[in-house]
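yo

u said u wanted the structure for the complex thing, so here. seqs first:
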Amino acid sequence: MKKAYDFSWQDLGDLTAGRPNLGGETSVAIYRLMQFTFKDILSKELGREKTSELFVKAGYLAGREFCRNMLSTALPFNEFIADLKLKLIDLKVGILQVEQADMERFEFILTVSEDLDCSGLPIFGETVCDYDEGFIAGVLREYTGKEFTARELDCWATGDRTCRFVVKPVER
Amino acid sequence: MSSSTHLLETLNHCLAQAMERGIGKNGLTFPISCEEFQDPSCRCFCENLEQIFGQINETYRLAEALANGQLKAEVSRSNIFAMPLKALQSSLRHLTWQTNQVAAGDLSQQVTFLGEFSESFNHMIESLRDKKSLEQRLKTITDVIGEGIYLVDTKGALLFANPEAEKLLGYGIEEMAGKIILHAIHKQVADGTLFAPEETRLLHAIANGQTYNDNDCVFTCKSGRLMPVSLACRPVVTGDSLEGAVLAFHDISEQKKYQESLHKINALLDMQASTDGLTGIYNRAKFSKLLKVEIARAARYGSAMSILMFDIDKFKDVNDTYGHQSGDKVLIEMARAIHHNIRSTEIVARWGGEEFIIIAPGCGLEQGRQLADILRLKVEQTAFSVPRKITVSFGVAVFRADDTEISLTNRADTALYRAKENGRNRVETEDSPADPV
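structre next:
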């Protein structure tokens, strides 16, 4: 049996060297094509719940790596969130906004508009941003050193124009 | 009339009414019951219309709620008309949070993708950042300036203190905030007496927006110590409105100590310049100055004044017999004896060698003679260290209107000479008959 793969940021490759003409960007449709075909196959192989769980885990790993490699954890919280927001806009991931923040409990309601995963989807009647849930929790885990859960309340796919997440620290 | 025609006409009437009167409180009412239609197509169309009417009404209510600032208003997920309003609602919630963040001092907030509003908001943030930067620079200046700085309102209530002010007076800003300076730091004068409010020129200057400087002021420290300070007060004016004043002060304790020591040194130098090093009484130079003053006074007021010059009899014998140290001791004891037996208004000085001189203001010649005789007796009765008995001879002269210092002392000296000639241990006045040659 082959050894499990361990992700490393370097595995994203040297895009300047590798895509001198096409560059580092691709279309959202192609990104979604890959994600939703993964979802299709995995849900059929492993079931819907397990697939969601795996997407959350992958998003969590991505969030931690993104924070470690793209953000400065030395910044104060407000500036960290402002930096995260700008990075997500620059990378065309989505427009992050804070609707509520309880800094004593470290509980937040965050929204992501024009989200890479779901904005513009048909209304499925259920939230689909499992990967985003993991991503948000992973970023906050890397910044604070504490575990978080991010649960999506509203989604474009449920008829909303923005994805809304409730973020809370994991109680031990 | 066919059912479809009936449906369209009813719908048209309903829409025309709405177009004319608006949707109103009750909303857009769909007037037909779907149950009326037997035709499945008509019935389905009717049901869709009913649902759309419902969604329009719900969207209208959401728009109204948002217009009234009710950002928690809810709407059904399946409402396709409300979707842009939901995006607006989300943006408004975020803006509310951002505004609170800015109010709490978080200037990292930026608004994106909201057109002119984004530009205005971000411009406001830039201005606040500039202001904060300026405040930070001013704070740095006040932190390192080495002067205590207080900001007060027009009533003299403290609003701000820099670290140096806290260090100098010992009060933290939190315990001073809002306190009137008259009740805290500026309540006493240098001797510790409490100010009456009307007496404080500083409070007056603060209340009236005046510039005020005081280089001889004291502030009361938390410990109770009175700290001498040099103070500058400048009004703070915004537009036409007087906001209060800035007080800048520094501790001048060292300066005061230096001044005091300077006074002491000067006093010592003055004393050294005016006193006789051996006996501690005035020297001749000082005596001359004092005599000039007394002559001027006597001339001005026409008052009497006598000069008593005296000399230790046979002082050379004391030196020769007991040595110069003993002679010096006699001079010291003599000065002390005379000094203790004259009035505070009378002045004694060492004239030179074993000669002394006294100014007796208010004494005519006879009173001067009596004083000289009393002193002569006191000396005679005084037990000196060695030899035990010492006598002195006095010459007394009285001030005349045309006298100078020299003419007056010369007459006293002549009288003294006569006292010596006439046997010593006696008093002679300027009008004593000359001794027979």
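The beta strands of chain B are 148-152, 158-161, 212-220, 226-238, 241-251, 305-312, 347-352, 355-361, 392-398, 427-429. Chain B touches chain A at residues 76-80, 83-84, 86-87, 90-91, 93-94, 96-98, 101, 106, 108-110, 112-113 (CB under 8 Å).
cya
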